Amino acid sequence: MARSLGAPAPAGSAAAATRTRRLPPLLVLLAAAAAGPGAGGAARLYRAGEDAVWVLDSGSVRGATANSSAAWLVQFYSSWCGHCIGYAPTWRALAGDVRDWSAAIRVAALDCGEEENYEVCRAYDIHFYPTFRYFKAFTKDFTTGENFKGPDRELQTVRRTMVDFLQNHTGGGRPPACPPLDPIPPSDVLSLVDTHGGRYVAVLFESHGSYVGREVILDLLPYENIVVKRVLNAEKGFLEKLGVSSLPSCYLIYPNGTRGLINVGKPLRSFFSSYLKSLPDVRKKLLLLPEKPNKEENPEVVVWREFDRAKLYTADLESGLHHLLRVELAAHKSLAGAELRTLKDFVTVLARLFPGRAPVRKLLETLQEWLASLPLDRIPYNAVLDLVNNKMRISGIFLTNHVTWVGCQGSRPELRGYTCSLWRLFHTLTVEAGARPEALDGTGLEDDPQAVLQTIRRYVRTFFGCKACSEHFEAVAEESMGTVKTTDRAILWLWETHNLVNSRLAGHPSEDPKFPKVPWPTPDLCPACYEEIKGVHSWNEGQVLLFLKQHYSGDNLVDTYAADLGDTSEGRGPHQGGEQEKGLASPGKPQRDQRSESLRPPSVLPPRPRLSDGSQLGLDGRLRSARGAEGRREAEVAVPFLGMGFSGLDMSLCVVLYVASSLFLMVMYFFFRVRSKRWKVRHHRPSV
Questions:
Q1: Using alpha carbons only, what angle is made at residue 157 by residues 69 and 220, rounded to the nearest 5 degrees?
Q2: Rounded to whole angstroms, how far apart are CA atoms 528 and 123?
Q3: Which residues on neighbouring strands pair with residue 259, listed in sequence order?
Q4: How far is CA 600 from the centre of its chain?
Q5: What is the CATH number of domain 186-283?
Q6: Out of 23-37, 87-101, 285-299, which region has the weakest mean confidence (pLDDT)?
Q7: Domain ranges of the chain
Q8: What is the Cα–Cα distance from 165 to 167, expressed in whole angstroms?
Q9: 4: which DSSP letter?
């Protein structure tokens, strides 16, 4: 699969297994918590010391942009975003092109795909990638910056917007190293002859709307013994007097007072800047710029995991769920309206159709029932995170907090990974919906062959971080998803769309050279899927459908390299130790567990039964006992006794109910008190 929603086909690959820290605890579910930055790491697409891009991380972004003597243009990107990978050469070229501007404005990047940067990206309210933000100089209070506004993101467009941004700095807020960019009146040109101060003065005559003069001023910013000015809309007679016949032109006043029009090959910014930098005695200043925000750390150790391309790996699906629930959705501080409905429907589809291990399914079911039972029309996403992180200490639920790519490995850390796992998850959901249509009974999504596809479509449109990728997916869905009339057709529609995206991105920088974007399944995986009609390749869609149903079924899911579940019977969250990489799945362990009954909301779960009568917990987190499946189901939904399983939300609701009941009792007390006094007055008889 690919790095964007158009990533490489679901072939396996190798990638660095990024070890992740657990998200910090959140004590109050109904309040958005401000998370502190974690330790910084080197961005993957940009290398400090190699690129002109300033590489920021969670530990340096606030210090760099707050109260800085220079302005900043920061790209918040994700190393898994295919569009970000494709845009990286442009961003590097931009940083190199304006390298001489760094005393006034700096081009930086922060990788929101790095685990340690998740929280700081949330703090900056980054929802989609790439996001571009300007930060003014001398900003003392925390700010999320100003969004880049431009017709496109081509190098020249962004560079010109940087010029506008600098020019809009007012008064004391302007970077001190940045010279005035506003034009001078034509009448001041001749007076510069007497006030040149023994240095070169270059005057650029240009038309209104031209950026050449301002860009040359910034290009010469780190050079001494020269000053650059610009003049707009000079009268024709005045220009003729100076010998200026076309715009833009450069009129140069020498240190000895002589002056004249300079002749460059072409009236372009680069020609003017190069000529002026080459003048005698024009040399670079010794600028004391701060050190780059972070230095390149030791390169990440890439662990290659051998895998079978014909298999589907639990580790890929669970790692994808971890990123989806804890990172991508967590970029939204609160959810309401259409966003909340999309989340509820998507979690419902996951809870009913996800074919993975029982503790993960149980977590999804718990989340789904909790969301369905909420009477609120807006929720903070921190509340969802607390449930995903098992702050309620519900027994038997689990989701890894480690990223371990197996079939979704890439030859470099930024390739494949999350979007590959997302494609595999989507394919799996469509296949499961066709195999078990009864699973969606009672959800409002039953009896609709497009239900799963439309839910995926809304999720991608609303939450998927790569904005360009989601727009491409939406365009394809709008054109052809309406033709889907059966669940089989839904499976094939997603397959066709995936191959269409792969074809579009073949040769794109996000393509993994070790796993090229080719039509999938490949002939070695499904020979029967290929046929020729009059010498032209054609798909045998009947065989493709059979292959997809087998490949993405729960029976083809293996637990090799999957995270150790630990002891889920004690209501713990994700296992705190390192990932356990096993060469083989446990012998005799079934690849697909029988599904348990639906869970009740966490607040009404029964107390945990005692592990007696020979009951014991297996390594996969399921209870083994003589009572069989029924006992196993009861144990899997168990919760610690005497209130240890209450969440922050439960406690908040208890406080609200307590306050409400207290107010009600006070009102009733005063009501009956007043009524009693009235009764006494009415029935009082004075003594004779």
A1: 45
A2: 51
A3: 253
A4: 32
A5: 3.40.30.10
A6: 23-37
A7: 54-168, 186-283, 312-558
A8: 5
A9: S
Three-state DSSP class for residue 551: helix
Helices (H) and strands (E) in the chain, counts: 18, 19
420 is catalytic: no
Phi-psi region of 48 (alpha: psi -120 to 50; beta: other; left: phi over 0): beta
* pLDDT score recorded for residue 357: 92
Looking at the structure, give the CATH architecture of the domain made up of residues 54-168.
Answer: 3-Layer(aba) Sandwich (3.40)
Q: In the 3-class helix/strand/coil scheme, how is 241-272 assigned residue by residue?
A: HHCCCCCCEEEEECCCCCEEECCCCCCCHHHH
Two tokens, residue 167:
């020019």
Q: Of 84, 112, 178, 466, which is the active-site residue?
A: 84
Q: Is the confidence at residue 30, as pLDDT, over 70?
A: no
pTM of the predicted protein model: 0.56
DSSP string, 340-358: HHHHHHHHHHHHHH--S-H
Q: Is 439 helix (H, G, I), strand (E, B) or coil?
A: helix
| Distance of alpha carbon 71 from alpha carbon 280, whole angstroms | 31
Contact 45, 86 (CB under 8 A): no
* pLDDT (0 to 100) of residue 2: 41
**Residue 388 contacts residue 347 (beta carbons within 8 Å):** no
**CB-CB contact of 132 with 148 (8 Å):** yes
Give phi and psi for 486, each to the nearest 5: -135, 165
Q: Do domains 54-168 and 186-283 have the same CATH topology?
A: yes
Residue 29 confidence (pLDDT): 27
Per-residue CA distances from 51 to 383, 508, 659 (Å): 40, 21, 59
pLDDT in tens, 174-195: 888 888 899 999 888 878 877 7
439 half-sphere exposure, CB direction, 13 A CA radius: 22
Question: For residues 326 and 26, is the Cβ–Cβ distance under 8 A?
Answer: no
Average pLDDT for 42-48: 71
CA 207 – CA 231 distance, rounded (Å)? 8
Write phi, then psi, for 231 (nearest 5 degrees): -130, 135
Per residue in 479-517, pLDDT (tens digit) is: 899 999 999 999 999 999 998 888 777 777 778 888 877
Residue pair 156/93 in contact (Cβ under 8 Å)? The answer is no
Q: What angle do CA 209, 212, 215 make, to 5 degrees?
A: 115
Q: 277: closest CA among 217, 212, 360?
A: 217
Q: Is residue 14 scored above 70 in pLDDT? A: no
CB atoms within 10 A of CB 231: 24
**Would the pLDDT of 201 be above 80?**
yes
**pLDDT band at residue 288 using 50, 70 and 90 as cut-offs:** low
Query: Is 312-558 in CATH node 2.40.50.100?
Result: no
Burial of residue 240 (CB within 10 Å: 0-12, 13-18, 19+) is exposed
Parallel/antiparallel/unpaired status of strands 131-135 and 200-206:
unpaired
Asked if 101 and 218 count as a contact pair (C-beta separation under 8 A), the reply is: yes
Both tokens of 434, joined, read 């066709």
Q: What does the alpha-carbon distance between residue 582 and residue 566 come to, in Å, rounded to a whole number?
A: 14
Residue type, 34: A
Q: Where are the alpha helices (DSSP H) in 614-647?
A: 628-636
Q: Which residues contact 578 (CB under 8 A, 6 or more apart)?
A: 19, 402
Backbone angles phi, psi at 448, to 5 degrees: -130, 110
CA atoms of 641 and 636, how far apart (whole Å): 14
Catalytic residue list contains 84: yes
Whether pLDDT at 81 is above 70: yes
Task: Identify the residue with better confidence: 449 or 657.
Answer: 449
DSSP-derived pairing of the beta strands 312-313 and 283-284: unpaired
Among residues 81, 250, 420, 466, the one annotated as catalytic is: 81
d(CA 100, CA 114): 29
Give the DSSP H/E element, type plus range, for residue 228. strand 226-232
Would you state the pLDDT for residue 286?
A: 65
